[in-house]
Structures are given as C-alpha cells and as structure tokens.
C-alpha cells in the first residue's frame, strides 16, 4: 500500500512573473520620463549651494558665445531691456531668473541685474547644485 501524499511542494521559485513586473515598471518610467521637459536651454551653470524658487517668472539665459535668450527665444543685447519690460508688465511680482553660463563675463550678468534694479524686478541667479 502506497501511503505517500499526492501534493508535493516544489521548492523552486518561478521568476517569470517578477520579470514581467520589472519590464512593466521599466516601460512606465520610460514613458513618464519623456513627458517631463524643462523650460531651459542646455547651458552649464556655475556651482553653488542653495535652491532656486520655481514660480512664474522670465528666464534670461546668456551663453558662452554671449548669445542672449529670453525664455528660449533668441534676442539681441540692444533689444533685451525693451523685451523684458514688455514681457514682465503683466506679472504681479516680476521676477527674472538669470542663467549665465560658466565663463560669461560678469559685466554681462551685471547688465541684466542693472535692468532689473532700474525697473524694480526681483533677480534670481540660477546655479548648479554642488
């Protein structure tokens, strides 16, 4: 007479369901990461400790080649002040985020700060975290 039980427990672990979950998560993060875009030019900022506030403002970017951008729109140095005034007149608390790339002469950044000072705009200097 055979007394052994019919139900044997298999000690092996099947990894196929775990790999399915990992691939689904991978696809999910790949799709959602493409939806996140930053509203900035690809410039190398100087390092500093601190944090930049993220609110409604206008970004002024200066590249190493001394090309000026207002919110990713290329502009000349002569028209910079006029365009800033026209863009910031609709804001309650006008704020300029200054994004000067490493190697830009300080005079160029000070010119933007001078424009902001004359028109009572707040200036935030964007930097790279350390």
Number of strands: 5
Order of strands across the main sheet: 3-2-1-4-5
User: Helix segment count?
Assistant: 3
> Approximately how much beta-strand content do the residues carry?
15-25%
Question: Quick one: biggest sheet?
Answer: 5 strands, mixed
CATH top level label of the domain at 58-125: Alpha Beta
Task: Tell me which CATH architecture of the domain at 58-125 applies here.
Answer: 2-Layer Sandwich
User: Which oligomerization state do the chains in this entry correspond to?
Assistant: single chain
Low-pLDDT residue intervals, each spanning 5 or more residues: none
CATH fold topology of the domain at 58-125: Nucleotidyltransferase, domain 5
Instruction: Tell me the radius of gyration.
Output: 27 Å
